Amino acid sequence: MKVVFVDGENVGLKVVEKIDSALSDKVLVFSKSASIEQHCDKALFQHFSNYPTGSNQADFLIIANLTKYLTVYDTKALSKAELVLYTNDQDLISAFEFQCEQHHIPANIVRTREASKVISLPVSKPTPLDPVEEKLFNALSQPRSLDPELQTELRLGRQTFTRAINSLLNANRIKRSDTNKKLWVQC
Known about the structure:
It is built from nine helices and seven strands; from the N terminus they run βααβαβααβαβαααββ. The protein is an alpha/beta fold. It has two domains: 2-110, 3-Layer(aba) Sandwich (Rossmann fold); 131-186, Orthogonal Bundle (Arc Repressor Mutant, subunit A), CATH 1.10.10. Strands 3-2-1-4-5 form a five-stranded parallel β-sheet, sandwiched between helices. It has a two-stranded antiparallel sheet with strand order 6-7. α4 runs parallel beside α6 (90-102) and α7 packs across α9 (158-170). β2 (26-30), α3 (34-43) and β3 (46-48) form a beta-alpha-beta unit. This is PIN-like domain-containing protein. It comes from Vibrio splendidus.
């Protein structure tokens, strides 16, 4: 016996249409989509849409139906069963595998999307600081307040001082101190 659970909300109509099953297989499709429901009627799949609208509601019903199968059939019958889940939802996969492990039944997970590929972007070198920014940056080697006293010490006008602060902030070169949020320090 093969029981196929399909998270139609997650995989979509194209995947549901590609599911090839034997007459003895049970295919349970969970979706509120009318087009998926029509395909299920044609393909003789069991369709479930009687769950509340909201995040993870279909997932809860999938796990509830899985649990029903795991508790209704005895261990001998389940050992011959193949439980398949079509989804890309990692949380649902974890819950499905956990329930199957509790009953010592292998779970077959079919991901319909390839794992996302990590593309490394070139790291740009930080732009060199202009002399005013460098003066302020060097003054913040120790946590300090960005107050008029520092501005006077660096001999900078108010507008120049503010522009240098904003430039260093936007470049992520300075940040608030971890110990005192009123003080600023180099990143």
